[in-house]
Amino acid sequence: MEGQQKRTLDEAEPSLLEGVKALIVDIEGTTTPIGFVKETLFPYVEENIESYLKKRFDDEETKADITALQELAIKEKADDQEGVIEIPKEGSKEEIIKAVVANVKWQMDADRKTTALKQLQGHIWREGYKTGKIKAELFEDVGPALQQIVEEGINVYVYSSGSVEAQKLLFGNTEEGDLLELFTDFFDTTIGSKKESSSYKKIAEKIDVNPEEILFLTDMPDEATAATQAGMRSALVARDGNEELTEEHFQNFLVIESFGELFGDDEEDYKRLEGEDNGEVDEEDEEEEDLGEEEEEPEDEDDDDEEDA
To answer: What pLDDT does residue 265 have?
Structure first.
C-alpha cells in the first residue's frame, strides 16, 4: 500500500486518476469507519442533546435548528409518515425540549439523514470537538493518499449527508491533525439527495468541471449509480464494517479497498472505470457471452456453473 501511495500518477500504469480533475469523496464508510459514526458521534448526540438544548435554547442558531425540525415534523405528519414525533411551536421550554429530544432520537434510531437532523447534530458535535471529547477517525490510507492527490493538482471535495459544518469539524479535528487544507469545498444534502443524479450535476456545475473528469468515491451503490448517471466516474470503496457488496456490484463497478489503489496498475480495473457499463448491467453482452460459451462446450455443465458463480 505504501508503495502505491508514493508513486506519482505518471509512474502508475495506468492510474485510475488519469484524466481526473476533481475527486469527490463520501465520508461514512469511505474515509471514516462506520464504527466511528455509530459508536462515537451518534452516542455523543444522544447523551448530550438535552443538556445542549437547555444551555443554548435561546440562541438564534438553536432556535433555527428547532424550527427546522418542527417544520419537517409538520410536513411528514401531513404526508402520513409513520412514527413521526411532532414538536409543539407553543409550550414551555421543557415541553419543547422534550419533544425535540424524542424526535431526534426517533430519527437517529431509524438512521434518517434529513437536513434538519444533520444540522442540529453538527452543532452538538462542534462542542465535542472543541472540548477534545471527540477526535475524528480516518482510515490510515486516506490522509497520505489525499495529500498526494492534491500535490498532483487534483482538487478534492466532500459530498456527505452530514452538514457542511460537521464535515469541516471532522476533517479539522482528526487523529492525524487538521486536514482541511486538503479540501477545495464541501457539499451536503442542501444541494440534493445523494441518490439523485441531479445532485451530482449541480456539483459538477458548481465546481466547473466536466462530469467525465470527476471521480466519486462512496461505499453506497445507489450513490455510485446516481453519480454515473450524471456522467461522472464512480467507484465503490469496500471497507471493514461496511455493508457487504454483492457479485453484481463487483461486476458493475470498480471496487477498491484502499485509496492507495487509485495509484494502482490494474489494467482491467482501469477499463472498468472508464467503460460505458460502469454502474449498469449490460444484459445483452452477458447473454451473448453465455451463448458463446455454450456453443463451445455445450455438454460441460460444471464450467457454466462456475461462470455464473
So the answer is: 56
* Calpha distance 26→276 (Å, rounded): 23
Cell of residue 111, nine digits: 438512521
Residues in the chain, how many?
A: 309
Tens digit of pLDDT for each residue in 269-306? 444 444 445 555 444 444 444 444 444 444 444 444 43
Burial class (CB in 10 A: 0-12, 13-18, 19+), 135: middle
C-alpha cell at 60: 438564534
With b meaning 16 or more CB within 10 Å and e meaning fewer, what string describes 102-121? ebbeebbeeeebeebbbbbb
Nearest alpha carbon to residue 210 among 24, 21, 26, 25: 21
Our CA angle for 38, 42, 44, nearest 5°, is 130
In whole angstroms, what is the distance from residue 233 CA to residue 227 CA?
7
Cell numbers for 167: 464535515
Give all strands of the β-sheet with 185-187 in edge-to-edge order: 185-187, 155-159, 22-25, 214-218, 233-237, 254-256
Q: What is the DSSP letter of 40?
A: I
